[in-house]
Amino acid sequence: EEALRGLKMAMKADSPAKDTAAIVIEPVLGEGGFYAAPASFLKEIRKICDENGILMIADEVQSGFGRTGKMFAVEHSGVEPDIMTMAKSMADGMPISAIVGTDTVMDSSGPNSLGGTYTGSPTACAAALAVFDVFKEEDILGKSQRLGDKLRKRFDQWQEQFPHVDNVRNLGPMAAIELVTDKTSKEPRADFAAAVTKKAKENGLILLSCGMYGNTIRFLMPVTIEDNILEEGLAIVEQALKEIG
Ligand SMILES: Cc1ncc(COP(=O)(O)O)c(C=O)c1O
Q1: What value, to the nearest 5°, has the Cα angle with vertex 131 and ends 141 and 46?
Q2: Could you tell me if the CB of 82 is within 6 A of ligand 1?
Q3: Which of 33, 51, 116, 238 is in the most buried spot, having the most CB atoms within 10 Å?
Q4: Average pLDDT for residues 10-26, to the nearest whole number?
């Protein structure tokens, strides 16, 4: 509700509907802290866009290609954007990105109006097509959902066990924990997150923090990770969490 109020306020004060070409949203904030947009928020954005002739663009660069248990994070809400941006997991690391849109939108740009120096690399395109095959052949979405459930169970345990772990959250395996002073004040502690990251690195695990306050640690392991490797990584994080505070 607060986000929607903010959006409506911005449209009143800064960008009236008649001057707004598009609303771009990450269905799950990446660098911003791994917050999943509630379905109701995405539905409201769709409604505002429909009512005002504004395009809805879902940035799925980080959340797309199975990272949330569905092919695209926006699918969790049932909302259909006009345009989606994709990259990162699309070709399993090969450099490729895509802008995908409805016929109406994509056909309106005319021949030769979309292009770029690196578009259509045959190697990257072949890799992306191979990724699509692997999704089908190896039940990647099923794996992704199971991985997400496993992480959530473990993070719930951490939240119970450790005084400084709070606000654990996930959409599939796009999962994060926050480091705080305590669960009452919930004061963000970037220094704790940095300490955990440093300790984990000493033990051979690279972690990435994110979020407005730098106190969130995000987890983005390959969806195809083997159980024993996952366990090894989680044990390193757990050890680091024991040592802080
Ligand atoms: C959600 C999201 N959108 C866009 C980008 C930027 O993508 P590019 O560097 O390919 O323009 C990133 C990069 O981290 C991202 O996470």
Answers
A1: 60
A2: no
A3: 33
A4: 94
Q: What CA–CA distance (Å, rounded) separates 83 from 70?
A: 17
Angle, helix 122-137 to helix 140-161, in steps of 10 degrees: 80
Best residue among 62, 65, 90 to mutate for probing ligand 1, ranked by most atoms within 8 Å of CB? 62
Q: What was the pLDDT predicted at 111?
A: 85
Provide the CATH number for the domain around residue 219: 3.90.1150.10
Shared domain for 91 and 207, answered yes or no, is no
- pLDDT tens digits for range 57-81: 999 999 999 999 999 999 999 999 9
pLDDT of residue 81: 98
Pairing of strands 55-59, 22-25: parallel
Indicate if ligand 1 lies below 6 Å from the C-beta of 59: yes
Which of 28, 61, 208 gets mutated to test ligand 1 (max ligand atoms within 8 A of its CB)?
Answer: 61
Structural domain of residue 152, as residue ranges? 140-243
**Alpha carbon of 240 to ligand 1 centroid (Å):** 29
Q: Whose CA is nearest to atom 14 of ligand 1?
A: 62
